[in-house]
Design brief:
This protein is α/β, with parallel strands linked by helices and 414 residues long. It folds into three domains: 107 residues, NAD(P)-binding Rossmann-like Domain (Rossmann fold, 3-Layer(aba) Sandwich), CATH 3.40.50.720; 202 residues, Dihydrodipicolinate Reductase, domain 2, CATH 3.30.360; 57 residues, no CATH class. The protein is built from twelve helices and 16 strands. The strands form two sheets. A ten-stranded mixed β-sheet has the order 14-13-12-11-7-10-9-8-15-16. Helix 4 runs antiparallel to helix 11 and helix 8 runs antiparallel to helix 9. The longest helix has 24 residues. The protein is globular, with a radius of gyration of 22 Å. 45% of the residues are buried.
């Protein structure tokens, strides 16, 4: 399958590496990225240039900044190209609807990069849930601990620092997690939702006395957990975000880029924590908690059932039956991003286009949009300080599934 890769940042590179390693499946016929200087394929300065060129492409990987997802996807579908689309699908529900309409008109496939679904770990967890060992699940508690360093990089200093540049933290980071919730809850319908969140700490009023505008010049950086010199130059965990991860490149990042700026300058407005409460048919309750200020980066999920608890920490799955012995499952997780999910979604995209009936295309996108509907509904609740009460769904219209009345939060003085 001849593919164009639109955007060659960390996500585009991940998919490109798979394509290069599987030449029996993929041929990269062009890469669109204005900052890319060398490449194994022709380089275009923009996605428009790439789509206009005579490359013979059959499909595209859209790994551009979020704000460009809709336009690049619509342009690709208009040319009859299948699309592997990095999340989020769109930056608003209206954008998602445009893409759904365009996909239907084109007859092409749009596969969303929900890579967690494709990882060995979450597939093993789904098998445990479907086995019925826990009985009836009554509640799910899911924590997304972003990690203080990753959150400072992405949601304070980086591409998702301001909601107007794309989406808020919840949609950008947790559309993966809403997808997992859709997966776990199956055919149950959402009845009510409320979401609460704020930007509490990375604000100018919290700037330490004597702190400088850039970390490299800061006299108090040794006591700051968000010191860019330490996070980028002294440590290596965040370097994968940059094409050049050398010490010299990190010196340049710290000295001259936005990633070397103080987190308290007030250039950001994305929330640093948010909790979403959901009630589904049958009384099932789900809590999704997103937190920036954690030591570790991980997802942790606790399922409460009528016959057992299941605790999943991202590495192992512990089944704790009320009668019987505790069981620990440790799924094999291949090296690489998302436990092998990045590679698996590329393989799935190839099979979808080459070996699967086009009759499946509509359902795949509709399934992905259910998670987006949840995420946008949660943001609506947070911003309007309201509780959403969802109407009866129309199975042919994902939007109607989540279009309900808005009820103000009842506020009291404690």
């Amino acid at each position: 399958m001849k593919i164009l890769i639109l955007g060659y940042g960390v996500r585009g590179r991940a998919y490109g590496e798979y394509a290069l390693a599987h030449a029996d499946e993929f041929e990269i016929v062009g890469i669109a990225d204005p900052l890319l200087e060398t490449s194994v394929a022709p380089v275009f300065a923009s996605y428009d240039d790439a789509l206009a060129a005579d490359t013979g492409a059959e499909a595209v990987v859209v790994a551009l900044p979020d704000a460009l997802h809709k336009d690049a996807t619509l342009a690709s579908l208009a040319k009859g190209l299948h699309v592997l689309l990095e999340k989020p699908v769109g930056c608003s529900w209206a954008e998602c609807e445009e893409i759904r309409t365009a996909r239907s008109a084109s007859g092409c496939a749009v596969l969303t990069c929900y890579v967690l679904r494709y990882s060995n770990y979450y597939r093993a967890l789904q098998e445990v849930l479907r086995s019925g060992v826990a009985g009836d699940i009554t509640s799910i508690h899911h924590l997304v601990a972003i990690g203080h360093a990753k959150a400072a990089h992405a949601f304070c200093r980086g591409n998702w620092a301001r909601e107007e540049d794309g989406t808020g933290t919840l949609v950008q980071k947790c559309s993966h997690d809403f997808d997992l919730i859709v997966w776990w809850t199956g055919s149950r319908r959402l009845k009510r939702m409320a979401s609460y969140g704020a930007l509490s700490h990375w604000r100018p009023e919290n700037k330490p006395p004597r702190a400088a505008a850039r970390c490299i010049d800061c006299p108090v950086r040794s006591t700051c957990p968000f010191d860019a010199v330490r996070l980028y130059r002294d440590e290596t965990a965040l370097r994968y975000h940059f094409p050049d991860d050398s010490d010299a490149a990190m010196d340049e990042v710290v000295a001259n880029s936005r990633y070397g700026e103080c987190v308290y300058l007030g250039k950001n407005d994305s929330v640093d924590h948010q909790t979403t409460l959901m009630e589904f048919d049958g009384g099932l309750t789900v809590t999704l908690e997103m937190e920036a200020y954690s030591k570790e980066r991980r997802r942790m999920t606790h399922f409460y059932g009528t016959r057992a608890e299941i605790v999943a920490d991202g590495e192992k799955i512990v089944v704790k039956p009320f009668a019987g012995e505790e069981r620990v499952i440790t799924p094999a997780q291949p090296a690489g991003a998302h436990g092998g999910g990045d590679r698996a979604v590329m393989a799935a995209f190839y099979n979808l286009v080459k070996r699967t009936s086009p009759a499946r295309y509509a359902a795949l996108l509709d399934s992905a949009l259910e998670s987006h509907a949840l995420a946008f509904r949660a943001e609506e609740s947070r911003k309007q300080r309201a509780v959403g009460s969802c109407q009866e769904p129309d199975a042919t219209n994902v939007k109607e599934h989540f279009a309900g009345t808005i009820m103000p939060h009842r506020e009291t003085n404690c």
